[in-house]
Structures are given as C-alpha cells and as structure tokens.
Amino acid sequence: MAALEVKDLCKTYIVNKRQLNILKNVSFTVDEGEMVAIMGPSGSGKSTLLYSVSGMDKATAGSVKLCGTEITDMSEKEMADYRLKKMGFIFQQMNMLKNLTVYDNIILPGYEAHTGKSRAEIDEKARELMHKMEISEIGDNDITEVSGGQLQRACICRSLINSPEILFADEPTGALNQSSSEEVMRMLAKLNGEGMTIMLVTHDMKSAAKCSRILYIVDGNIKGELQLGKLAEDGKEFTENDIRARERKVGNWLESLGW
Ligand SMILES: Nc1ncnc2c1ncn2[C@@H]1O[C@H](COP(=O)(O)OP(=O)(O)O)[C@@H](O)[C@H]1O
Ligand SMILES: [Mg+2]
C-alpha cells in the first residue's frame, strides 16, 4: 500500500501582492517501507514540499493521502492530532526543550498524544528506542551535555515514541559533522530496514546514497528520480563496498542533473 500519495500539489505564497508559485503540480507516491530522499538546489522547494505533505503547512491545491487518508481538508486541530499520532518529525535544528533531560524530551510527545497509554508503556517504548539508537546511557543528561550525533539520535527516539506510520526529516544531518552524520544515517537506514517508511530532505550525497530512492526537485517540480533499493533489509548487514558503489552511482546521477 502507498504510505503517501501526492497528486498535483501546489503551494503558493503571496509576498508584496506578488504570487510566488513554489510547488507546481507535484505528484509522487511513497510506498510503505521506502526511504525516499528529496534533493535539489537551495530554494527549490524541498522544505516546502516536506511541510506541505506532512500537514505542517497548508497546501494551496492538490491532494495528499497519508495511508489512504486525505489530509488536505482536515481542520488545523484534526491535523495537529493526526500529526502527533501518525507522523514522526526530525529537524536540522532539533527543537529539544532546554529545561528537560534527554529522556523527558523523548517521552513528552507520548503524553501529549493522549493515546491512553500508561506511564509504564511509554517508559518501555522509550527505553527500547534508546537501546536501538544506542543512547541508553544519556537519558538523565541535560540536552547541552551530549554530542550533536547523540542529540539527533534522541530526536529520532522522540519522533518514534507514538509509533508513527511515517517519519519525515528535514536535513537531519545538516548541522552534524561527517562522523555524526554517518551515525545518524546508519540509524535511519536500520529503522528503514525494519520497515519504517521515511521521507527526508538532504543536501548530502552520502546521506542520500543510504536511501532506497531519490527524487530531485528543481524550481518546484520533480526533475529526476533514482531507484537504489534498500541498503539494509531485515537487519542484514551492508559492507563499506556496498555503500561506496551506491555513492558513486548517486554522484554520477547528480552530476548528470547539473548538481
Ligand atoms: N513563508 C514563506 N513566504 C514566502 N516565501 C517562502 C516562504 N517559505 C519559503 N519561501 C520561498 O520558497 C522557496 C523554496 O523554499 P524552501 O522550500 O525552503 O527551499 P529549500 O528547502 O529547497 O531550500 C524559496 O524561494 C523561499 O524563499
Ligand atoms: Mg530547506
């Protein structure tokens, strides 16, 4: 089944009485279990696309179906509730609350969603996620006391606390150094290998090479698509050679698009 079905999506901003068409009839589908990277020049509409398909921003026209449910005609309140329960989000600028520990930041959306889960159930989910993201030991830390890579992995835990259907990420490695980027992307690929559907925006060719498919957007339209297949399937290990081969393929493809 399609996790995400986008049809003729348009997004327009009015600035100084001028109409700016940022997304121009964008259509694509993301199947359950895919990990799709959105690439393209700066200002091409990548973030706008991510926000419009995830209901963080209202589309001007077109249809967005998330697991079969049309989200463009939801009220703001319905949308907020749907987002909290069905979608996970990761951002470049992390958005963690400074006065809470890492652990409390992770569990907070678990309470906000009012799903009727008990404290014990939310705790168990948080512990399981932190174990998987290899940050079990930093739960009691202040968010200022951990590395950027650890903090982004905590953000991944937070985004998954309500077991969403799909994970959206806007440049999740944009603020990280090379080794932390690698860490975070390996974790996302591992989650995808276990079945999580992921759509992410990235500027980084190495990050994109770990995704199963890449869409290239220019000036509000999809101009290219590269099918790579999953990096990790069901916990199967991948080698450095697998990764290098994918990076070469992505590099050549991007070059052909004038990247
Ligand atoms: N709220 C807004 N009002 C007006 N223009 C906007 C707004 N948000 C984004 N834009 C414009 O839309 C274009 C695409 O922005 P964005 O989606 O952030 O690009 P990208 O993420 O690909 O760098 C840019 O030209 C940007 O200036
Ligand atoms: Mg952006």
Please, could you describe this protein's structure?
With 259 residues, this protein is of the alpha/beta class. It has one domain: 3-Layer(aba) Sandwich (Rossmann fold). Helix content is 36%, strand content 27%. It has 8 helices and 10 strands. A 6-stranded mixed β-sheet has the order 6-7-8-3-9-10, sandwiched between helices. It has a 4-stranded antiparallel β-sheet with strand order 2-1-4-5, covered by helices on one side. Helix 3 (102-112) packs across helix 4 (119-132). The two termini are 32 Å apart. The chain binds adenosine-5'-diphosphate and magnesium ion (MG). Magnesium ion binds next to helix 1.
Q: What would the average pLDDT be, to the nearest integer?
A: 94
Question: What small molecules are bound in this structure?
Answer: adenosine-5'-diphosphate, magnesium ion
The major β-sheet equals: 6 strands, mixed
Q: Would you identify the regions where 5 or more consecutive residues have pLDDT less than 50?
A: none
Rg is 18 Å
Coarse shape? globular
Spell the H/E element sequence: EEEHEEHEHHHEHEHEEH
Query: How many structural domains does the protein architecture include?
Result: 1
Arrangement of strands in the largest sheet? 6-7-8-3-9-10
CATH architecture: 3-Layer(aba) Sandwich
What percent strand?
25-35%
CATH topology: Rossmann fold
The CATH class is identified as Alpha Beta
- The total beta strand count reads 10
**Number of discrete helical segments:** 8
Structural class: alpha/beta
- Gap between N and C termini, in Å? 32 Å
Going by CATH, the homologous superfamily would be P-loop containing nucleotide triphosphate hydrolases
